Amino acid sequence: MKERVVQFGDGNRLVGILTEPSEHRSPRFIVVMSNVGLNHRVGPSRIWVDLARRLAALGIASFRFDLSGLGDSAPRNNSLGDDVERAVLDLQDAMAWLAREVGQRFVLVSLCSGTDNAHRVATSDHRVCGAVFLDGYTYSTPLFLFYRKGMRFLSLPHWRRWLVRTFPDTFGSLRGETRTAGAASEIFSREYPSRSRFEADLSLMVDRGAHLFFIFSGETMYAYKRQFWDWLEREDWKGQIALEYHPRANHTYSFRGDRELLLAQVVDWVLSLGRSRALPESHWAVAESSIFASPAAPVAPPLRSDLAS
């Protein structure tokens, strides 16, 4: 495995880490990861570092980078007011650099708010041949309402909270529960596309040949494994959408067992995409200046020696 720091984008203001396999080879695609919320590019519990190095050991290159104004990347000089719009431009800058230096096909891996950026780019950019969405967009279904609203009357914590609110003098000692960490309403709000727009975007991605992997944790608006399929009207997705649900995992997979399972599933899915013959080989273009075939073009030196993580 080899890793190097690169600076790219307008004025080399963005910083990323390119992780390559030890052996020189032309990549079929590059896996691209960026920040989760305000986290540094390593991701929660260094999850992107672990993923990048496991992929490299299996012959797959990846790139993790900081969005503008986060981690080691400088903010943009323009006055764009939309965080998603800025992030999309940063992601496009990363893909432009990778297309010149490494290869021209990409698999985007994202978590939580990062899925907003990945969704928009994967919908519009034909070079994205795959995407992994961790706790991406969710939509309510009748069965979801039953599980989350109806079943709460069988929940002991629900009745404990009701007693504390209704009879604080008598049951105040039961107080002390806090809401689940990571609930979206506690941290920030996200602007979801309409359900019909979401499905139309999925159809656009799938019909051009992209493969998608949706994974949901137990700390999102998701209550049962088939919920994803139940909010879609289209039934035939050509076998190009995979789904996993981890009801006991928290939003950032901070427990090792949950994180190991997640990483294993993502790695297996990426490997299966690499072996897939669903896309003709001609669809996998590699840049002529691929760093796997020739010496790398010079890049600006890192700002500090502690960037390589």
Topology:
Elements: E1 2-8, E2 14-20, E3 30-33, H1 47-57, E4 62-65, H2 83-101, E5 106-111, H3 114-124, E6 128-134, H4 142-150, H5 156-166, H6 168-171, H7 184-187, H8 195-207, E7 211-217, H9 227-230, E8 241-246, H10 256-275
Parallel strand pairs: 3-4, 3-5, 5-6, 6-7, 7-8
Antiparallel strand pairs: 1-2, 2-4
Write a brief caption for the model:
This protein has ten helices and eight strands. It is an alpha/beta fold.
Which features would summarize this protein structure in a list?
alpha/beta, 10 helices, single chain, globular, Rossmann fold, eight-stranded mixed beta sheet, 16% strand, 309 residues
Element pattern in H and E:
EEEHEHEHEHHHHHEHEH
Percent helix range: 25-40%
Strand order of the largest sheet: 1-2-4-3-5-6-7-8
Number of helices: 10
CATH homology superfamily name of the domain at 2-138 and 208-220 and 238-283:
Alpha/Beta hydrolase fold, catalytic domain
Report the CATH architecture of the domain at 2-138 and 208-220 and 238-283: 3-Layer(aba) Sandwich
What's the overall average pLDDT, rounded?
82
- Would you count the extended β strands for me? 8
Task: List segments where confidence is low: pLDDT < 50 over at least 5 consecutive residues.
Answer: 177-187, 280-306
**CATH fold title of the domain at 2-138 and 208-220 and 238-283:** Rossmann fold
Helix/strand/pairing category: alpha/beta
Q: Largest sheet at a glance?
A: 8 strands, mixed
Radius of gyration, CA atoms, in whole angstroms = 21 Å
CATH top-level class of the domain at 2-138 and 208-220 and 238-283? Alpha Beta
Assembly status: single chain
Q: Can you tell me the overall shape?
A: globular
N- to C-terminal distance: 14 Å
Strand content: 15-25%
